[in-house]
Amino acid sequence: MHYLSTVIEKLVTPDSDVRRIPIWISWQMRRSEGGLRAPLLALHRAVDRLGLAPAEAAGHRSGALSIEYLVCRRLGVSVLRGRGKMAVAKSLVEGRSRDFRNCPAQLSADLEAAWRAELHAAGHHDLVSDLSVSPREFLLGGH
Questions:
Q1: 97 contact partners, CB below 8 Å, separation of at least 6
Q2: How confident is the model at residue 51 (pLDDT cuts 50, 70, 90)?
Q3: Which of 56, 83, 60, 64 is closest to 142 using CA atoms?
Q4: SS3 content of the chain, % helix, strand, coil (to 5)
Q5: CATH number given to 2-139
Q6: Model confidence over 64-91: pLDDT tens digits?
Q7: How would residue 134 be classed by pLDDT, with cut points 50, 70 and 90?
Q8: Where are the domains of the chain?
Q9: What is the CB-side half-sphere exposure of residue 62 using CA atoms within 13 A?
Q10: What is the tens place of the pLDDT at every residue in 10-27?
């Protein structure tokens, strides 16, 4: 559990001086002994893969990415549903598309694909379902 808290701590970068773009995430999963470890570690690796949390930014005021909130609730005895809101520095969002209005949507699609790929690579693609990433909360799938 210490490793997981370190991962979450690394992603949380409080900084009100950096202009940020919100990115919403949600997923559903079967309960497992590992708890939330698999989806959150896969998310962390996806964030790293996309360069959204460079090592030199951790703990500094550059504020590459922060987690605004992350909640999970149990549905019945065997299903967990998670939801969260991240905020990504506007400078990291720009440049993902020629039209800035499409940049948050492109980042969301890239992050969702990378997150799915990380879950698959770790052998957890069957553990997590209804995974969704969106620049708008109401566009999240399955919720």
A1: 103, 105, 106
A2: confident
A3: 83
A4: 40, 30, 35
A5: 3.30.70.260
A6: 788 899 998 888 888 989 999 999 888 7
A7: very high
A8: 2-139
A9: 13
A10: 444 455 566 888 999 999
Kindly report the number of other CB atoms within 10 A of residue 62's CB atom: 17
For tokens 């309960």, name the residue. Answer: 31
Q: How far apart, in whole angstroms, are the C-alpha atoms of residue 62 and residue 87?
A: 13
Q: In the numeric block, which tokens belong to residue 20?
A: 């940020």
Q: Is the pLDDT of residue 7 over 80?
A: no
| CB distance 81 to 95 below 8 Å | no
Q: What is the pTM of this model?
A: 0.79
Long-range pairs, 91-98, Cβ under 8 A, ≥24 = 92/51, 92/52, 92/64, 92/65, 93/21
